[in-house]
């Protein structure tokens, strides 16, 4: 049997890998290898018994994410705005306090403290170049401390620190002590601002996609047809003497000229490379662990909280559910409440039984919205840290020293090996928009390299 040969192999059929293949397919032969039995990566749908579909992975798009809106239109999908009417709740000291906007109403001293810290953080983030955060004059200092250290110095009240940490958990699925201050600033700047990342209307949580974001990936895969191979985890990549790459995967092997790795950094470490990747690349990937997140969704007959003029949005420093949203789909009768378990809470509740975790989540929902919330028609949660080919969400984290030590080479190809995925984006790092941006950049690198090689191989008449 002859060995399959293509010009480009893409590893990973998440939205970044699928987009890379779509961009390459008209010019080059391309193959996507996906370890799972589905496409979508960190995007996944769940279908309830009544037929309603909900995202249990990444779901939101918002202003400034031009690539995502363009893709949605290209694929014939539509969006609707997340429900954002009525009062939000701050659940504090055993009771809910109503408020409107991004920042809840708290005692004036803590409110002023939080406002000053937010303004200072935003000003620092705006001063960064998101394409090269390590070049900032204060980069070494900001990358030498954690976000938690900065909060301890810049938030004088405990309540302000706790509320800031709730926002950080919602954005990063991590604790402030896990993050380099420079990474937190870069992340906010990459997505316009921290306020944008925390906001619904006009922010990163503004819109949802009918049919789910995983449905977009399924449509992309349909366009690619047999170029997509599922159940094919890549185990080994060998660079041949002629510069080509040979890949061994769960269903066989093939040879290619160029390769795009579109995996979470922690999953790229599973692959054996011969020769080994440069030590700096391996060290960098080791320094990019994933956040910890469990996404929880309860389905009710209707969104009953709206009867009380509540938006379904809750912030709670005590948790274990610290953030909730009304995830009900426009045009459907069911009411969906969605909550996040993040950081340390997600790690702790990942270890308990599914029944116990369900009870802990529904207890929170009942505290927020009344006893009716304790009795959903259906409930589902997704522990992304336990997902075999993901092992964490939403995206990779950068601990102190990572950006200044390795950032300048983050997106650099390793010979014929190129890197894509949201963790390799300049704009909207951690979001689907960033996944698409990185795919465009990796494809441009591959096309330029293949064109150079074609030029060198041309036979010039004597």
Give the gist of this structure.
The protein is α/β, with parallel strands linked by helices.
Explain the overall architecture.
The chain is α/β, with parallel strands linked by helices and 462 residues long. The protein folds into three domains: 4-41 and 212-289 and 398-457, 3-Layer(bba) Sandwich (FAD/NAD(P)-binding domain), CATH 3.50.50.60; 44-102 and 201-210 and 293-383, Alpha-Beta Complex (Polyamine Oxidase, Chain A, domain 2), CATH 3.90.660.10; 107-198, Guanine Nucleotide Dissociation Inhibitor, domain 1 (Orthogonal Bundle), CATH 1.10.405. Helices cover 34% and strands 21% of the residues. It contains 15 helices and 19 strands. The chain has helices at residues 15-24, 66-74, 108-126, 139-142, 147-154, 158-172, 181-190, 194-198, 213-224, 265-268, 279-286, 343-349, 354-369, 402-406, 432-457, and strands spanning 4-11, 30-33, 45-47, 53-55, 79-81, 87-92, 95-99, 207-209, 228-229, 234-239, 245-249, 252-261, 272-274, 293-300, 310-315, 323-326, 335-342, 378-383, 417-419. The two termini are 39 Å apart. FAD binds at residues 16, 34-35, 234, 423. This is Monoamine oxidase. Belongs to the flavin monoamine oxidase family. Residues 15-446 form the Amine oxidase domain.
């Amino acid at each position: 049997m002859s060995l399959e040969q293509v010009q480009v192999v893409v590893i990973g059929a998440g939205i970044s890998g699928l987009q890379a293949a779509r961009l390459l397919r008209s010019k080059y032969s391309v193959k996507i290898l996906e370890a799972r039995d589905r496409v979508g990566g960190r995007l996944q749908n769940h279908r309830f018994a009544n037929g309603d579909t909900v995202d249990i992975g990444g779901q939101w798009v918002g202003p400034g994410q031009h690539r995502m809106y363009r893709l949605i239109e290209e694929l014939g999908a539509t969006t609707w705005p997340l429900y954002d009417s009525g009062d939000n709740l701050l659940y504090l000291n055993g009771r809910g306090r109503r408020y409107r906007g991004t920042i809840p109403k708290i005692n004036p001293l803590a409110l002023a403290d939080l406002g000053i810290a937010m303004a200072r953080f935003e000003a620092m983030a705006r001063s960064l170049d998101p394409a090269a955060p390590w070049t900032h004059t204060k980069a070494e200092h900001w990358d030498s401390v954690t976000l938690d250290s900065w909060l301890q110095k810049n938030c004088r009240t405990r309540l302000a620190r706790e509320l800031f940490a709730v926002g950080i958990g919602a954005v990063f699925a991590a604790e402030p002590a896990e993050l380099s201050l420079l990474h937190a600033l870069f992340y906010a700047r990459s997505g316009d601002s921290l306020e944008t990342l925390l906001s619904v209307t006009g922010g990163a949580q503004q819109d949802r996609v009918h049919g789910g974001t995983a449905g977009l990936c399924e449509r992309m895969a349909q366009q690619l047809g047999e170029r997509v191979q599922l159940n094919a985890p890549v185990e080994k990549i060998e660079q041949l003497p002629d510069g080509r790459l040979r890949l061994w995967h769960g269903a066989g092997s093939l040879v290619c000229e160029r390769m795009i790795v579109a995996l979470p950094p922690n999953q790229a470490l599973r692959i054996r490379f011969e020769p080994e990747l440069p030590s700096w690349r391996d060290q960098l990937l080791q320094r990019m662990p994933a956040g910890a997140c469990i996404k929880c969704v309860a389905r009710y007959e209707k969104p009953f909280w709206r009867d009380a003029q509540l938006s379904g949005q809750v912030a709670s420093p005590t948790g274990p559910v610290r953030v909730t949203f009304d995830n009900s789909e426009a045009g459907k009768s069911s009411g969906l409440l969605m909550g996040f378990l993040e950081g340390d809470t997600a790690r702790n509740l990942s270890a308990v039984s599914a029944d116990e975790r369900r009870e802990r989540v529904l207890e929170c929902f009942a505290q927020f919205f009344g006893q009716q919330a304790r009795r959903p028609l259906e409930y589902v949660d997704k522990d992304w840290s336990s997902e075999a080919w993901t092992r964490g969400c939403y995206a990779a984290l950068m601990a102190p020293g990572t950006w200044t030590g390795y950032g300048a080479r983050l997106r650099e190809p390793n010979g014929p090996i190129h890197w894509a995925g949201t963790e390799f984006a300049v704009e909207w790092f951690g979001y689907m928009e960033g996944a698409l941006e990185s795919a465009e950049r990796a494809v441009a690198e591959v096309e330029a390299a293949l064109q150079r090689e074609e030029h060198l191989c041309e036979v010039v008449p004597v």
